[in-house]
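[job 4471] stage=fold_predict status=RUNNING
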Amino acid sequence: MVCIAAFIILAIIGGFVAIISIFKPKVGKAYWKMFKKAWGCLWKKVRLQKCETGFKDDVKNTLLSRVIVKHPKWVKPLSVVIEVISVVIVVIAVWAILTAIKSLLALWALGTCNVTKPASCSLGAEVCSIDEDEPEGFWGGIGRWFTEWPEIIEAIPDKFHTYNADDYDFNYISVDSEAGEDAPVAVDIFDPGCSVCMKSYNNQKEAGFFDKYNVRMVPYAIVSTDGEYKFRNSAIIVKYMFASEQLRAGTALDLLDRIFTWRDDRDISYQNLFNNEYDEEGAVEVLEGWLHDMGLHSKEIKEIRKIVEYPEIEDKMSENRDIVENQLKAKGIPTMIYDGGRHTGLWKAE
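[job 4471] inference complete, writing structure tokens
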């Protein structure tokens, strides 16, 4: 273990030595000689051969040379300490390498290097993440590290899977576009409170995405790990979308468009207001006011209010959640299905 630990340490400091050796070549030569010995030892370990004991002794003697002269009785205990430290260095290095491999695999397969909290991965796509419960304590974190491996490996085949929008029985809102019945179908899963969903929607409108595909907008309210909705009024907005669409087609998309594109007199986006200012009562008042502006009568709005409370509305939300989390195993939204592929994160015009 001492020679392997020495190789790891020498590999880490190699970059600094390379710079120093420009001014002091002797330092570089001494380092390179030691590094070649360490590499030779490591290569033998990989092939299950025995390391040269001479190199191991060189390392120990170098570290203990001053102690031998002043405190000869400390040599044996310190020798044991060096062995223990070497084991710790090797374990940490192996753990770090495996963690790096796991993170890269997760980034490729799932679009995030952090499986538990996808949005915290700066290398991943810009998403509103669907978080998992954080493990408690040290051993909980260790256990979670191991349980993430099967989840990542299971997701790898999905990278080669062809996705078809018709394969998933979503409860959705149709977008009225000029694409025509023969145009390809696209699915767009969104949360009304997700800022990335809002950006994607606006990008899609500007790029003519809705005129190229028959888009099915799928309302999905993210549930946090504490059981509450991630965005304050997402659930009630989704319910009003389903209820109003059931009574009059087109109203749900109008509601969504206002949330994602309209701003108030203070130039604050309505999505921001729904997320941060309105309580549920205030959100309902704004939504019903908009429905009235769209031409719905008081009786129709009262009917929508009743439909919102129907168990069928909750069932639609649960069905969408099941497809997103258990069938698609999405780690964040917006998630889109079109052209045979699944795309997660901020949509940008090509």
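[job 4471] summary: Confidence is low (pLDDT under 50) at residues 1-10, 12-20.
[job 4471] exit 0
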